[in-house]
Amino acid sequence: MSSDAMAIPNATAEARPWVEVVHEWVTTVDHKRLGILYIVYALIFLVIGGIEATIIRIQLIRPHNDFVSPQVFNRMFTMHGTTMIFFVAMPVLFGFANYLVPIMIGARDMAFPRLNAFSFWLTALGGILLYFSFLGGNGLYGAGNAPDVSWWAYAPLAARAFSPGPSSDYWTIALLVSGFGSIGTAINLIATIMCLRCPGMTLNRMPLLAWLNLVMSGMVLITITPLSAAQIMLLVDRYLGGHFFDTQAGGSAAIWMHFFWIFGHPEVYVLIIPCFAFMSEIIPVFSRKPIFGYPVMVGATICIAFVSLSVWAHHMFTIGMNSYANSFFAITTMCVGIPTGIKIFNWLGTMWGGSIRFQTPMLFSIAFLFQFLIAGLTGIMMSSAPFDWQLSLSYFVVAHFHYVIVGGIIFALFAAFYYWYPKITGRMLNESLGKLHFWLFLLGFHLTFDVMHIPGILGMPRRIYTYEPRPGWETLNLIVTIGAFIQGIAILVFVANLIYSYFKGPQAGNDPWDAWTLEWSVSSPPPDYNFAVIPVVASRRPLWDLKHPEDPDSRYE
Amino acid sequence: MVRFDQIRRILKPRSKVAGIAVLLAGALLAASLCFAAPGDPSPLPSIYDPHSTPAKSIVHLSHFVLSITGLIFAIVFGLLAYAVVKFRKRPGDDGREPPQVYGSTQIELAWTVIPILIVVVLFLATARVIHSIEDAPQPENAVEVVAIGHQFWWEFRYPQSGVVTANELHIPVSEAAHPTPTFLTLLSADTDHSFWIPQLAGKTDLIPNRVNHMWMDPYQTGIFLGQCAQYCGTQHAKMLLRVYVDSSQDFATWVQAQQQPAVLDANVTAGRRVFETTACVNCHAVGGTIANGRFGPDLTHLMSRQTIASGAADNTKANLRLWIQKPDAIKPGSLMPAMQLGDADLDALVDYLQTLR
Fold first, then answer.
1. 3-state class percentages of chain B: helix first, strand second, coil last, to nearest 5
2. Final residue belonging to a domain, choices B99, B134, B169
3. Interchain contact A453–B (C-beta under 8 A)
4. How far, CA to CA in Å, does A155 sit from each of A83, A168, A260, B158, B296?
5. Could you tell me if residue B228 is inside a domain?
6. What's the CA gap between B37 and A545, in Å, rounded?
7. Residue A539 to residues A106, A198, A206, B42: CA-CA distances in angstroms?
8. What pLDDT digit, counting tens, does each position of A28-42 carry?
């Protein structure tokens, strides 16, 4: 077991010219630095995507508003969706995986450090290309810029006949490039987890975070591939005279939908599974109990991964598939609820009989459980295909997936930030600001996304830049916008906390949460090589064994 | 072969389930029900104010689904709240770790098997409604309509009567005694669209190179509102849609009027000349004249419609003038070009259009 005394000291005490520092960060192949780069990069895009969301909400604050033109509005929701999925959620999760997986399995770095750097810079280039379209692209009607075909870019809207300018190409190439980055990271994570575990760490003793990131990486390999293929086909259509999706020449719009959603639905699980991983590390520590049903948690995750590959066309219930196809995708979708439910029950089982501490990471985790439950249940509603014929493409579905992405993924991410920030920076995040951030964000989230379900039920479709003054729509949209602003303020509190605590936060020490996995055995921030001596583990909670030699886990496993 | 009125009987309300569901569904439903008073069609296109069999059977299914999900929510939320309160760290705790429990096979089995049973029940209820709506046979006396989505308007063609109109769909009420449902064939001329009248049926997309179908049998006369639900380009928001459900007599009268060629009024020949000698005829048709364009709405009976620009504006003289002169003022990004006419020509043209009853 490694400890401070054995750690290799950081050899960078004296001040150096900033060029040298930048050069060091740009050329780094260290998994921790790349992890931080991913996270900071994602946070920048989070703010940009948030500004786009704010513009959308200001426009919808009242009917017939003209805060922005329809062209600008369409760009805003296209860029908001694309940014949040591809350049916020994926990079931030890859960032945490990069940072945490090697340390948690007792490795000194990822299996392929250079591939790791290459993947990050590909992803970074993707985001820059996407936003370069504001300068270099033309929209649907020439004069505009930035993609405005929505983040699904359904055929044939993205065909040249309907999107003549290059803005859709920026979208296509940005996703293609960052997709290759994602595939590189997935390969790297799989190789790392398979090959670099420390002695004693069998698959059965691996922290759930590593297990779930392994499953996530497998899913990335399977799902990013059809997306990349579809992007290439779209480029062939647009520039080489292909007719895959070009309906005017006999192509098929439905084929694009299949390609997109065989990526798009598993993608939701690519994003949520690492968040399940955070929950599976944080909830036990703050309940002071080991995870309930470890093997079942692993099994349920693998089960989710498999089943989620067979549900994609529930995004297409309205395209006129026959009743057999609709029934098939209804039942597969309902089936995903079973392993997902098992996970929720196991987290509850972990809390049951524990001694729960309500520090900020746990507050976000409990809110995650509550909101993810609701998101799952509205998902079950829409898996019932006829009900979906009404709810799909309406604000109900917008509320549903924001419940998953904000109420689930973003809340889990905040929990992860508060939990691992001390390890990454060596300083604790401010607890009062953290609680303020939590309560503000919780209030804003529920104002926005609880209320947003209702206009959908009242017939309001998504992606409309303005709406008619219908009874109910006005008040509800006003409340949704107010909630969005409260969320915005909460995010500012969070960013302020990140910056303030970096300079002024109390020293964290190695193990501020009295936790049990290997990352808490090294200094904060960890030394360059993570472990001076590669640790040897005998159970799933090596630090528990160390702290309780009279009653080690290894006795029971 | 199942007869159409039998289907309607199969889908009869089960009020007990509905009652429980309304209790359980909480804020979500309550809010929607406040806005959706039963009875007259309201100006609010709520899915909980159904006036047609497909919409109604979806509401019944939704009550069943909401009861189950509501029950699951109550139980799991209850457990979560209980755990948070009961197992919190208390100030007096001695700091010792709680008993370390690793799992339990029996409990895991229980919470695997129960959800499987729930899924089976949910699926059966769902499959039944999917089948009853999607596989409903078209009765002999059904009204057929071909709906064609365009960037950013709707074209409706009635193959049985030869009527062609735009944006405002007229269909007959379907009486329980002898149902006359409307069966729509959905096509698209350009990008994807989606036909959604929440009070009458769930939405179905209009996709180029693909033929889709849907049907509705409104129980009640009146106007039902909806709009395009699938993002189709710049003016997706103002691709509004309305369905006029007429009594069978009114519908027959309407069809008869629509079948007539355009009225030729001698007082507006100047305006007609403007229409027929400018680009108008490239896109618009007026029955009985040389104008036979199909990119834009058929104008033969323009004045029989209450709105223009796919519901974006009321069909008034001032709006019509503005729409021809500066379409972007009403619907920026629509494909109607600004016609660049002089005032005299513009007035004459509007006068001519106003005679197309």
1. 40, 15, 40
2. B134
3. yes
4. 20, 12, 10, 28, 22
5. no
6. 64
7. 13, 12, 9, 64
8. 999 999 999 999 999
Q: What's the CA gap between B56 and B74, in Å, rounded?
A: 26
In a domain? residue B326: yes
Measure in Å the smallest separation between the Cα of B305 and chain A Cα atoms: 19
Residue pair A187/A221 in contact (Cβ under 8 Å)? The answer is yes
Chain A partners of B204 at a C-beta cutoff of 8 Å?
318-320, 389
**Using CA atoms, how far apart are residues A201 and A544, in angstroms rounded to an integer?**
15
Alpha-carbon dihedral A203, A207, A209, A214, rounded to 10 degrees: -10
Contacts of A318 in chain B (CB under 8 A): 194, 202-205, 229-230
Q: Cis (ω within 30 of 0) for the bond into A549?
A: no
Domain that holds residue A541: 4-9+27-555
Residue B42 has a pLDDT of: 64
A291-344 confidence digits (pLDDT tens): 999 999 999 999 999 999 999 999 999 999 999 999 999 999 999 999 999 999
Distance of CA B2 to the CA centre of its chain: 26
Neighbours of A539 (CB within 10 A): 19
Token pair of B357 as six digits: 């009853």
Does A426 contact chain B (CB < 8 Å)?
Answer: no
Q: Which residues of A511-527 are buried (b: 16+ CB within 10 A; e: fewer)?
A: bbbebbbbbbbbbbbbb
- 3-class SS of residue B277: helix
- ipTM for the assembly: 0.92
Q: Do B123 and A247 touch (CB under 8 A)?
A: no
The owner of tokens 């219930």 is: A317
> Residue A393 and residue B84: Cβ atoms within 8 Å?
no
Task: From chain B, pick out residues whose CB is under 8 angstroms from the CB of A377.
Answer: 69, 72-73
Chain A residue closest to B82 (CA)? A352
Separation CA A170–CA A173 (nearest Å): 5
- A373 and B212 in contact by Cβ < 8 A? no
Task: Give the CA distances from residue A220 to residues A176, A389, B76, B251, in Å, rounded to whole numbers and listed in that order.
Answer: 14, 29, 31, 56
Residue span of the structural domain in which B282 resides: 266-354
Residue at a domain's end among B108, B134, B160: B134
Residues of chain B with pLDDT under 50: 1-40
Q: Does residue A335 sit at the B interface (CB-CB below 8 Å)?
A: yes
